[in-house]
Amino acid sequence: MTKNTVAKTYRLPTALYILIVNEAEKLGLSEADFVHDALKKHFQLRLDDARLSAMEAHLLDAIERNSRNITSLIQQVISMAGPVN
Q: Are 23 and 15 within 8 A, CB to CB?
């Protein structure tokens, strides 16, 4: 056990425990390493999802701002063209 770990006991449903054992054996990992890797991947995916959501919001805001600017510029050009005869 490395110095940055905590030994903790959790109760798991039997079906989940069997799944963990089977998957750990398939991958050649200990049950603890398998659970550690699965939890690490889960939280990394959550972090990645949050980052992507923030990027998406930023991009949508930038697109909206640019759309308003383009609309304003088009209106200025139309107004400079004068009335249509």
A: no
Q: Which residue has the tokens 């949050």?
A: 50
CA 26-29-32 angle, 5° bins: 125
Residues 32-58 pLDDT 10s: 999 999 999 999 999 999 999 999 999
CB-count burial class (<10 Å; 0-12, 13-18, 19+) for 20: middle
- Alpha-carbon gap, residue 71 to 5, rounded angstroms: 57
pTM of the full structure: 0.63
- DSSP letter string, 28-80: T--HHHHHHHHHHHHHHHHHHHHHHHHHHHHHHHHHHHHHHHHHHHHHHHHHH
